[in-house]
Amino acid sequence: MSHRILSIAILAVFVISIAGTVGMATAQSNTTPPATTDTEQDHQVQEQYPSYKGSIAVPENTDDNGLASLAKITGEEAKAAAAANMSVSISDVQSASLENENGNLVYSVLVMKQGTVYDVKVDAGNGIVLFIDQSSDVGEGVEP
Predict the structure, then answer these.
(1) Is the confidence at residue 22, as pLDDT, over 70?
(2) Where are the domains of the chain?
(3) Backbone angles phi, psi at 44, to 5 degrees
(4) Of 26, 71, 82, 103, which one is least surrounded by beta carbons within 10 A?
(5) How is 51-94 classified by DSSP, letter by letter?
(6) Taking a C-beta distance cutoff of 8 angstroms, is the pair 120, 79 a contact?
(7) 121: which strand partners?
(8) How many angstroms separate the CA atoms of 38 and 92, rounded?
(9) C-alpha distances out from residue 114 to 75, 96, 104, 110, 136, Å
(10) Whole-model pTM over 0.90
């Protein structure tokens, strides 16, 4: 009988030690990671929607008035590119405005097609359509 009590006691100590080890591992895995420093935050990349890369990067601190001097194509060329990409007449193009989108210089061209307005992002450097955003609730932006 004493062997049996001794075996149970050893088994109980073993189970308690394993449970303690698992508990410590769980507690360590649930700890909050250390806060990042300002330097680390500066180097972290944030995903933005839409995510495309234009040919002209807008320098920081550039105001809206400074964007025109960076553009390589005109608003009329951007309108023509959007109309061609959307397979519509140039008369279906509502407007074109130069914008800084996520650090990229683009023309935001509004196109009406079959009763739906599209915001077509045209690269202000080379006239390539980068992104098309449907303005209705039907869908999201699409890659051209």
Answers:
(1) no
(2) 53-134
(3) -80, 135
(4) 26
(5) ----SSBPPTT--GGGSTTT-SS-HHHHHHHHHHHHT--GGGEE
(6) no
(7) 108, 131
(8) 48
(9) 23, 19, 29, 13, 12
(10) no
